[in-house]
Structures are given as structure tokens and as C-alpha cells.
């Protein structure tokens, strides 16, 4: 009777039996939230880019037909390009075409912008990824040498900090003057010679796949100087954040316990410190990767690198708005997607992130 009375009392409102709450897994919810934010940011970016291209000085129709064309020809080109339509109609058409991969036709090259980007983007990706890997290596050395007090590490960190204080264009010019003009160690620009273009459009990768050692070495030789110039500032930014995290984690109780057990500093760092300290450095690395894609425009111009930076620099003076908008959207998409991937990597490294 006692158990029956207890159950009846619970059903009457005294206590309720425990029920399992059904819902979305925190990791899935975190993923959906980040993807939704990325999509929203891309739409906002498209609106900003289209608005700026609309209010910017210059006449796309005249740029399309030429500076010496008659007013009638300009008016006809304006009607054919749909520039007389209302703003919202043109923006909806712009977004609709962009979602299908149609970014318009360049007013300068007369080629589809997507085709131009497909031709120029691989060289930029090759340069940025090379610089990013180099930045991660330098940043890790910067952080670990400081956290573990390596002998002579202060000299390397001082040199890296000194180089990071210079603007990229100045660092690039000085690099060309010193390593090409004075010492003759490195080439001043270009991507080298590669007779058989590969499927990826990246000389270092394609020459490696073709087994052409000389072409691969030549590609690395041409990548060396621009990738170092592009990697210096991100390396310092990532290294500073990682060192601060390492210093914080190295002072925690579980690390002192691991040391008291007789573990070497290397095993303590790898097994007990890195995973807990990597989160902030991942966030900074994602930000720096986006900044590197944005800053590659200047570096490509100095080193005559045939990427989207040079393509954008040639499109701005002639008011080639489809090309400018296409490059800006691609760079913005890379930045947003990179930071979304970094957030997901942080959630994998530290499950507590997805619970927030």
C-alpha cells in the first residue's frame, strides 16, 4: 500500500516521475548556429558590396563600351546591362546569379568573372597556404621557445617582432632590394617556369605531382620571399596568443602534478598543455588566415604574383565593378568560412565550447 500511495500522490501533483528531455545534441546545435550565422554574414556582405558598387564614382556602362563611345551607345549598354532597373531588382538579380555561380562579365577582360577567378585564384591560394603554414610554424616556435625559456629563443622572437612592425609593402620592397638586388639569393617576382600546367593551377603542387623536381624547386624558390613577407605578422599574432595560453595552462594544478610524477617537459607539453591551450590560438589563426587573403593584394603587386590581388588591382582603375564585386565576395566568403571552420575545430578540441 505504501508504494501505491506514493505513486498516486506523485501522479496527483506531489512529485512527477522523471522524464527524458528530447532535443538536439549540443554539438549539432552549435554547428547549425554557426552555419546560420555564416550564411547571414554572406548575405550582408553581398548587400554591402552591391551597395558600394552602386554608389561608387564611375559609370559601368561607359567602362563597358569605352571612354570614347557616344552617349547613345552608353545608354544602350546601360539598358542591356540592366543598370536602369530599381535597386532591389538589381540586387535580387545579383544575388540570384551569384548563388548559381554567375558573377557577371568583367568589363575589362570581357570574360566571365568566374572564369577569371578560376584562372587567378589558384596562385593566390598557393601563396596564402604556404605563408599560413610558415606562420603556424613560426608562431609555434615563438610561443614554445618563450614558454619553455629556450636558450637563444629571445633573439629569434626579437627578430620576428622587429619584422612584424614593418608594413607588408615595405617589408616586401626591402626583401626584394636585399635578397634579389644585393645578394642575388632569391628571385624578385613571378612564379617560375612550368611547361606542363597541372589540374590545380599551383606550380609547386602540380610540378610535384608530375615528378618534376627542378620545376618544384623553382616554384619553392619563387614562393620563399613573398610567403615570408606574408607570414611574419600572422606568426607574431598567433605566437603571442599561444604563448599566453601556454603560460596560463603551465601554471595549473594538473600540470604541476604531471611534473611531480617525473614526466619530461616535452611529455607535459604534448600530453597535458597543448590541447587546453590551443583554443585561443585557433581563433587567432582563423582571423589571420582571413587577413592574409585580404593583405595578399599588396604582396602580389610587389612580387608580380599572378593571383586575384593583381586581378583586383587592375580592375579598380577602370571601374570594373563585376570583377571587384566578385573578388570581394570570394575574399569575404573565405574569411567567413575560415572562421566557421575554426569555431568547429575549437568545439572538437574543447567540448565545452559547443555547450555555450
Automatic annotation (TrEMBL):
UniProt keyword annotation of Transport present: yes
One Gene Ontology term from the biological process aspect of the record: transmembrane transport
InterPro entries associated with the record: BPD_transp_1_N, MetI-like, MetI-like_sf
Transmembrane segments: 35-56, 127-148, 160-186, 219-242, 277-299, 311-337
Membrane topology type: Multi-pass membrane protein
Keyword vocabulary terms for this entry: Cell membrane, Membrane, Transmembrane, Transmembrane helix, Transport
Domain of life according to the entry: Bacteria
Keyword Cell membrane attributed: yes
GO cellular component, one term: plasma membrane
Localization: Cell membrane
Residues annotated as domain ABC transmembrane type-1: 121-346
Chief place of localization: membrane
Similarity section: Belongs to the binding-protein-dependent transport system permease family.
Protein name: Peptide/nickel transport system permease protein
